[in-house]
Give the backbone structure.
Amino acid sequence: GIVVQWLKHCYSQGEANGTDNVAGGNLNLPAGSTITWDQRNGASLDISTPWTLGWSGILPSGGTSPVWSISGDGHTLTFSVSQNAITLALDGAILAQKTIQGIVPGYVIRMVLTPREIHVYYPVATGGLYPSTTLYPSPTLYPMAVSLEWTSWSYPLTWVQPDIESITLYGQQICNWIAVVSGEISATELSQWLTNLDFEPSWDLDTW
């Protein structure tokens, strides 16, 4: 796989288009900026299947489409998050999609893509005062408290996983980390990657 941790650009140097900055170990990409990794130690990037990809980041309330893309074998795979949906698409055709009720800004979203499934872990705001045709001015009308609930979504994939020849991140986002590892991670590793918000992948012989 690949671990793109920002202090390890020497293993896979990203090519930036637009502005970016690194602060607190996180990569901040404003809207319109991209970073592409298509080389490894001076040679063309070529990650053979099977592989597992993980991404952790913070998106604006309006979403980012796409968040990342992968090119390889003549195909393009994209992962997007809008105000209304989480979408994984291959060459523009939807492989998996989940309807959501908005994005909670400032909170991490996690995504893990294995050879067989996509998994997403994201916060959902509950409570609060929602727009309604029955609302009316009143001194006794108060908003309800808002709380966060973390939700997991998994979806089985029917596809032929392409090799990876390039990975691109798109702004607007704050990326904590993006990683690709060889093969399919275990159930224990999947839980760490997806739901342990203190987890960061480590670089080893199976990590690109």
The longest strand covers residues 117-127. The helical segments are 187-195. Confidence is low (pLDDT under 50) at residues 5-10. The first helix runs from residue 187 to 195.
